[in-house]
Design goal:
The chain is of the alpha/beta class and about 550 residues long. It has 2 domains: about 300 residues, ABC transporter type 1, transmembrane domain (ABC transporter transmembrane region fold, Up-down Bundle); about 220 residues, P-loop containing nucleotide triphosphate hydrolases (Rossmann fold). About 65% of the residues lie in helices and about 10% in strands. The chain has 18 helices and 12 strands. Helix 5 packs antiparallel against helix 10.
Length: about 550
């Protein structure tokens, strides 16, 4: 019920198109009911009594109602699609906006496959839900009620007997809706796993080719694919069974009424026109009743998808303070800094001061907390203790103003699918062409011949080193005060790496550098080196001494 109320609240934004759809529904329902009423006059007066004036008038009215019915059908069909597509467009934008503004950990709870399935596949189901399914719950019940009025008017005793079917239809809605919803949810979850597996193959294609993994991966894929197939087939089975149940019930009722109505006509209790009018209304009412029941089943099944979409819209956003960060004047101070995620302690009681303009190297073995330290300095993950920028606690700072002064780059180079120009403009949207070329030159992107060259996130057109250099070019456009580099040059050869680092240090002589590095040449280029071990600072001092300790057997 909560999910249905959520849908209704959202649809208020499209009230104009919904009103036009409702107008069409009313027109269509009234026309259908009017046609069933006019049948009596057509048969009794126009055909049996051969009243030509009545025949002409009734035929003309039937034609008018038929045209009105189709006009109503057009209004329903067109404007329902308009508001459904607008609603899906709005949700897509809201989901993407929420993705950009959510905190780091809430986004990391989802895999790419799961997130993509919810944005694409789930939204397609949602579009059908707010479009065709909601129509079935408004237009078809309205038509059924009006036609029910015609049936009561023609023979109320016979019509009251038909109400005995209502409990059966109610039970079928609950049963088929519950079964279809269960298997529809399973199908969506299996599709998430399929997309994730396909993404894994693309990301590790070379490794897969060099390992005897093809058969194993294919077997894994077949298992997930079989689950998707089985869930989809079962959802389709209950949809088909629901349709068969509805129409079989309808045909059974019509057969009984034809028999019973024939007796009443032969006894003179009903005229032939009244009976045909009743049968016409009964035939007309069958579809809206069945579609209403089908709509309730679809809504009941689709609400599970609505909850999945709402989870994306309710991702926790970053919490930030109101103090604007206007630049690093003193330095960055960490006091008793600890980071605990789940049951794992990543940093513990770290005390550190990085002065303005310092170049600090971070060393340590895998899992020692190097990347975590840089992430927490950006405010990506929660922490205990204090992180002070110019003496102001990070939690009190406006994160946008802080990050506008920071360049954060990891060894996993972020490349936007598009052109070289588009990849550079995300760092400085107003950058002129000469600035773009200068940034490419400083990052040694000698492989770029045109700003309109195509690149993509999978780096199909770039080597690892080329992707890192293109990512580094953004830094020269941004001109940051604080640079946090996490193995950002790991894919470069020694000569190219030295050139890029030299250009970075010379371009930003007053900026503060925190560099996670394994190459000793990078560490020696810094003013100071810190060694992390098990999330704690094991050494803080001269780079040369740090290297000696790091290489020692005791360490």
């Amino acid at each position: 019920m909560e999910g249905l109320l959520w849908i209704l609240k959202r649809l208020k934004a499209h009230y104009l198109f919904i009103l036009l759809s409702l107008l069409g529904m009313l027109l269509e329902s009234l026309s259908t009911s009017g046609i069933s009423l006019l049948v009596k006059s057509l048969v009794d007066n126009g055909m049996l009594l051969k009243d030509w004036n009545s025949l002409i008038l009734t035929t003309s009215l039937l034609l008018f109602l038929a045209i009105s019915q189709q006009l109503g059908n057009f209004l329903v069909s067109y404007y329902t699609n308009v508001y459904a597509e607008r609603e899906v467009k709005d949700i897509r934008e809201q989901i993407f906006s929420k993705l950009l503004n959510s905190n780091f950990l809430s986004v990391r709870e989802y895999s790419i496959g799961e997130y993509t399935t919810r944005v694409l596949s789930d939204l397609r189901i949602y579009r059908d839900l707010v479009g065709s399914s909601v129509v079935k719950l408004v237009r078809d019940p309205t038509t059924a009620i009006l036609l029910f009025g015609v049936l009561l008017y023609r023979d109320w005793k016979l019509t009251i007997a038909l109400l005995l079917l209502v409990p059966f239809l109610t039970l079928s809605v609950g049963y088929f809706g519950r079964k279809k919803g269960k298997h529809l949810k399973k199908a969506q979850e299996s599709q998430e796993q399929l997309i994730t597996k396909i993404g894994d193959v693309f990301k590790g294609y070379e490794s897969i080719k060099t390992f005897p993994a093809k058969s194993l991966l294919f077997e894994w894929f077949k298992v997930i694919n079989q689950k998707t197939y089985r869930a989809s087939i079962r959802a389709s089975l209950y949809t088909s069974l629901n349709s068969v149940f509805n129409y079989s019930t309808g045909y059974f009722v019509i057969a009984l009424l034809l028999f019973y109505g024939g007796i009443r006509v032969s006894e003179g209790l009903l005229t032939l026109g009244e009976f045909i009018s009743y049968i016409t209304a009964l035939v007309f009412i069958q579809k809206p009743i069945m579609e209403s029941q089908k709509g309730m089943v679809e809504v009941k099944a689709g609400l599970s998808v609505v909850n999945r979409i709402r989870q994306l819209l309710n991702l926790e956003e970053e919490r930030e303070g109101k103090i604007l960060f206007e630049g690093l004047r003193e330095g960055i101070r960490l006091e008793q800094l600890s980071v605990v995620l789940g049951s794992k302690t990543l940093l513990k009681d770290v005390n550190l001061f990085i002065g303005k303009g310092e170049k600090v190297a971070i060393m340590g073995t895998t899992g020692s907390g190097k990347s975590t330290l840089l992430r927490v300095l950006c405010g990506f993950i929660p922490y205990e203790g204090k992180i002070l920028y110019n003496g102001v606690e990070l939690r009190e700072l406006n994160l946008y103003s802080l990050r506008s002064k920071i360049a954060y780059l990891t060894q996993e180079s972020f490349i936007l699918s598009g052109t070289v120009r588009e990849n550079l403009l995300i760092a400085k949207p107003e950058a002129k062409e000469e600035e773009l070329w200068k940034a490419l030159q400083l990052s040694v992107c000698d492989f770029v011949k045109s700003l309109e060259e195509k690149v993509d996130e999978e780096n199909r057109f770039l080597s690892g080193g080329e992707a890192q250099r293109l990512a580094l070019a953004r830094i020269f456009l941004k001109e940051p005060e604080i640079l946090l580099l996490d193995e950002a040059t790991s894919a470069l050869d020694a000569n190219t790496e030295n050139m890029v680092l030299k250009n970075l240090f010379e371009s930003f002589p007053k900026s503060t550098f925190v560099v996670v590095a394994h190459r000793f040449s990078n560490i020696l280029a810094c003013d100071r080196a810190i060694i992390l071990r098990n999330g704690q600072i094991a050494f803080d001092g001269e780079p040369k001494k740090a290297i000696e300790i790091f290489l020692s057997e005791n360490f």
